[in-house]
Amino acid sequence: MNPASVGFQCPDDVKAGNAGVRRPKRTTGLRVASRRFGPVTLTLIGVNVLVALATAVSAVSQGVNPLRSFASPLQNAFATAPVAIDQGEWWRVVTSAFTHVSLVHLVFNMLALLVFGSELERQLGRGRYLTLYLVSALGGAAAIQLFAPPYQGVVGASAAIYGLLGGLGVLLLSRREDLRGLLTLLAINLVVSFLPGISWQGHLGGLVAGALVAAVMVFGRRNRPVVLGGTALLVVVLLVLVFGGLR
Fold first, then answer.
1. Is residue 72 among the annotated active site residues?
2. Is position 100 annotated as part of the catalytic site?
3. Is the model's pLDDT at 5 over the cut of 60?
4. From CA 222, how far away is CA 213, in angstroms rounded?
5. Which end of the chain is more exposed for a tag (fewer CB within 10 A), N or C?
């Protein structure tokens, strides 16, 4: 027997009683952030930041100030350009979507991804949200391949971000919610897209692809074969547009 504040307690009874008590789970900062912003969004941000760190280190090795520019051999190896894709360097379609030209470029894209991506992840679910993001990036690559100058190098997650904006617009439209704020933001960003040094092709391609795949997901959500078939068809069309000219 163990002495207690009132009388004595049997050790076996105390042990049996504690066995039925559920201990509270420990909560970490990462787990809280994951619940708030979504694990897919945080993972995408993490990948972009890791690639940015790698290109920044490569820039330092060339004597470039990484606070101003990530210009480096690694950035050149990750960037996409129509002529590079025509030569069979297919991986650039993927790597360019996670590479940025500078710290400012990275920060603005990641803030947009955090704000719009976390909302879409809650509304669509992890799988459909990730599909929307990747198809939007592919749509940007297709537009670059079709309309950009052959030797114009392009990097950045902007195509995917514009795709998220297009997807959010479709979602709001399906719920008959006010679109004026989003349309104003899109109008401003589309004007910015035509400034020198910015790939309007990637932005518009991502926007259109994101809106299309979101429409398939939202308006066909009660018919799984329609969603899967429509998304697969769009992906195939975009892949043909990107790689159709490969020699």
1. no
2. no
3. no
4. 15
5. C
> Quick check: 73 pLDDT over 50?
yes
> For residue 52, which amino acid is it?
A
Distances in Å between the alpha carbon of 151 and those of 80, 125, 238?
9, 38, 21
**The two structure tokens encoding residue 229:** 């078939």
C-alpha count within 13 angstroms, C-beta hemisphere, residue 206? 28
Structure tokens at 231: 């998304």
How far CA 202 is from CA of 10, 43, 109, 140, 199, in Å, comes to 72, 22, 14, 4, 5
**Can you give the pLDDT at residue 222?**
82
Tens of pLDDT, residue by residue over 77-98, are 999 999 999 999 999 999 999 9
- Does residue 30 surpass a pLDDT of 90? no
Position of tokens 């490569």?
58
Please tell me the distance from the alpha carbon of residue 129 to that of residue 97, in angstroms, as a whole number: 16
In 3-state terms, what secondary structure has residue 223?
Answer: coil
Cα separation, 37 vs 176, in Å, equals 25
| CA–CA distance, 187 with 140 (Å, rounded to integer) | 18
From 72, 158, 174, 199, active-site residue: 158
- How far from 117 is each of 15, 34, 49, 109, 121, CA to CA, in Å? 47, 13, 16, 11, 6
- The set of residues, in sequence order, having a beta carbon less than 8 Å from that of 11 and lying 6+ positions away, is 1, 2
CA angle 105, 107, 110 (to 5 degrees): 105
Q: What's the token pair of residue 230?
A: 């429509």
Query: Which residue type, as a one-letter code, is found at position 141?
Result: A
